[in-house]
Amino acid sequence: MGWAWVSTMPLVGSFLLPFFYPWLDSLVLDGLWMHVALGIGMTLLVSLAILPSTLTALTSGFFWGWEIFLTLLVSYLLANALGYTFGKYLHADFKSLLYQRNPTLQQEIESRIVRPAGLIFFVRISPVVPFAISNFLFASLGIPLKKVLQVGLLGMLPRTSLAFATGQVAQSILDAQNSMKQPYQWAFLAFFMLLSLWGIWYSWKKGTRKS
Fold this sequence. Notes:
The chain is an all-alpha fold. The chain has helices spanning 2-16, 21-26, 32-47, 53-64, 69-90, 94-101, 105-113, 117-125, 131-140, 145-169, 173-179, 183-210.
């Protein structure tokens, strides 16, 4: 049930988001409490997989600019923790079930969880692994939350900054969304994809040599 939710709800949220654009356009960041309210909202939307993290960054950049960027990063940290907690609660027995079906995997996986920093970073930087799914994956495999928080945000920064900056310079929200399909954006995504594939492979092979 949890995996189905995090796989489908971001699509539903992305479809519904345009209906809220007039309301978002009316919001003004006129004080600390407005930042807190928006931060809580973004934390819940991203951690519950209602909106993709990249679309959230794009929309935030368009409507509020760099003034909201720090709030966005803080909300992503909190969303990391909440999403991880949900994944751990829903899939507490994931590893035991996995090892029952594939006993040979236990030693291989456990040896990599000991030093998971590289794996976390390169999974996070991947443009094809959604934020919510990666949270569930890290929690299900028993990777420590502290390590996910320390390394995960660094892995998210490149794509988050790119999407945020694209929204910030766009003349309209439609232009911002269309800009994500420009050739230079595809080039960045291809670079992140290749980097993540290489990094995940290297982290896996490195774990093999140490195990």
